[in-house]
Structures are given as C-alpha cells and as structure tokens.
Design a protein that fits this description.
This protein is an alpha/beta fold. Helices cover 45% and strands 12% of the residues. Helix 2 crosses helix 10 and helix 6 packs across helix 11.
C-alpha cells in the first residue's frame, strides 16, 4: 500500500459514490491526489493533456489499488477549445462532487502563448482553470456539499496582479509571471467563495498548496538549463517532500471533514515548505474584494465564460 493511500485511509472520510475531477492527474501532485481519492472510494476523472501518459498513470494507480474507478480524459488547459470539449463530456448531467484545479506550468523560461494568445502561465494556471470551473459549475452545483479546490503556491506571497499587463506583454520574467498566476488562483478561490456565499450555495471553494515537493514540474522548468537543474536538484533533494506528502493538503481540501469556505491549506512546517496539512498563510494582496472582483471580471472577459455573476 502506498504512503498516500495509507495516510488517506487513516485520516479522511470515505468518498464512496463521489465523482472527482483532477486536472494534471498523470504525474506529481495530481497523480497522488488521484491515488488518495480513489483509495477513499471516489470515481476519479483523470484530466490529462497527454492521453498516453494519463493511461500509464492510471495503470500505476491500479497497481497499488486494484479495481480503482478511474476515467482518463483529454484536457489541455492551454487551449480553450480543449477545455470546452472536455466539459462537453459531462453532458450526461452527472454531478461533479470534487473539482481539483491542480495542473500547472512553472516559470517558462521564454514568454510563450497558449492557443488563445494568453501568456502561457497565466493562461494555463489561471484562465484555463477559470474556464473549466465555469463550464462545469452546473454539474458542481448539482452535487450536494461539493467542493472546488484551487492549487496555489507559497510563491503567491511575492506575487502581484498587474491589471495593466496580466499577459506580461510589456515585459516578461518567468518567476514573476509564475507568482502572478499562483496569486491569481488563490484570489479566484476566495472570490468564488464570496460569490457562492452570496447565492446561498452549499458548494465550498478552498485553496491548497503543496509546499516544496519533488515533482516533474521543477524538472521540466529546468530541462534546458543543465547547470541550474543540477543546483536545483541538490536544493530540492534537501528540502522537498515526496509527491505523496505534497498532495496531502489537496486531499484534505477535497475530502477533509470540515473544509472551511474560502480557506487555504498547506504544510505546517517552517515557512510552509514541508509538514502536515494545516491552515496556511494568505498574503494580504489575495484578500481584497476589489482585486477579486477585477480579476474575476477580467477572466470572464478573456475566456468568454461567465460564472456566478
């Protein structure tokens, strides 16, 4: 039995009969989140950009959990047509109990654009997930006590939303763009809860972050920079938790007994880099209602998806 399965079964309630959607489910935090939810009895839709990698990941989960209820479907968050096509696969009206907005790209060295002309990190991490959430929202609201989980990062603390240049067209710095996208995810989570509460909905929006975990995200970021990759490897080797531990905040957010509306969960250790799941620090710039409103409206305008207006 894997560590993530063992921890989940000891600490979290059963999810039998629940349908969960996990983006980026083929590796890292997404894979371990999938494994934990499947162990708890949920049916997990594994939303993956690469179907072959998704099927391989599903086989890996089934090795540790024979009989796991998994459904691999294609989703490229950097292409709104793909997001819409994925959402259309839920046209049968089945309620979605858990939506985990996990997938992401990190610190792309040179400015690149999505299929729709958005800066790659903001377009994938924030806009892609906003569009997906909006398109699936009727299915999410149809499930009692459903949850939407947004993956942020400790990097959000140093982030700033540049409403005059959300797409980093005037100037591009990979880390600055990443911090902005992860701040945006947290702001959207909090703003979504404001809007859900105003409607009296019992759906909960909550955010989580993995601390520092050893995943393919950092490896991919440094693939073309061997010297930095070697140095980062030494640092990650000393500080990083295994992926299954990095997934625990996501699992608690998705399946814990008492998910507080608008809350944020991360590791409880030094500067939230590692440890057990606990309430995490939210930077002041993530809390302002005006920033939440402006970002929400910008996301609606850019994606063409309106949600909780």
């Amino acid at each position: 039995m894997s560590d993530s399965v063992s921890w989940s079964l000891r600490h979290l309630p059963r999810q039998t009969g629940q349908l969960a959607v996990v983006t980026g489910a083929n590796s890292g935090i997404g894979l371990e989140t999938t494994r934990g939810l499947a162990a708890l009895g949920a049916t997990v839709v594994m939303a993956c950009r690469d179907l072959d990698k998704g099927r391989s990941a599903a086989a890996d989960v089934r090795q540790s959990l024979p009989g796991a209820a998994l459904d691999v479907r294609e989703l490229d968050l950097a292409d709104l047509a793909s997001v819409r096509a994925f959402a259309d696969t839920f046209a049968d009206g089945a309620p979605v109990d858990r939506l985990i907005n996990n997938a992401g790209v990190m610190a792309v060295p040179e400015r690149r654009e999505t299929a729709d002309g958005f800066e790659m990190q903001f377009g994938t991490n924030a806009l892609g997930h906003f569009a997906l959430t909006g398109l699936l929202l009727p299915r999410v609201l149809a499930a009692p006590a459903s949850r939407v989980v947004w993956l942020s990062s400790i990097a959000h603390r140093d982030g700033r939303l540049d409403f005059d240049d959300l797409q980093s067209r005037r100037s591009y710095d990979p880390q600055r763009a990443y911090r902005q996208s992860k701040l945006a995810d947290l702001v959207l989570s909090i703003e979504m809860q404001r809007r859900l509460s105003a409607r009296g909905a019992d759906t909960v929006s909550v955010a989580a972050h993995p601390g520092i975990a050893a995943t393919e995200l950092a490896e991919d970021m440094l693939a073309d920079m061997p010297v930095r990759a070697a140095l980062a490897g030494l640092l990650i080797g000393r500080l990083a938790m295994p992926a299954w531990r990095g997934a625990l905040p996501s699992l608690v957010a998705a399946a814990g007994h008492d998910a507080q509306p608008g809350s944020y969960i991360g590791p409880d250790g030094f500067r939230e880099m590692r440890g057990d799941p606990a309430p995490a620090e939210i930077a002041p710039q993530a809390l302002g209602p005006e920033a939440g409103r402006r970002l929400w409206e910008a996301c609606e305008r850019l994606t063409g998806v309106e949600m909780l207006g």
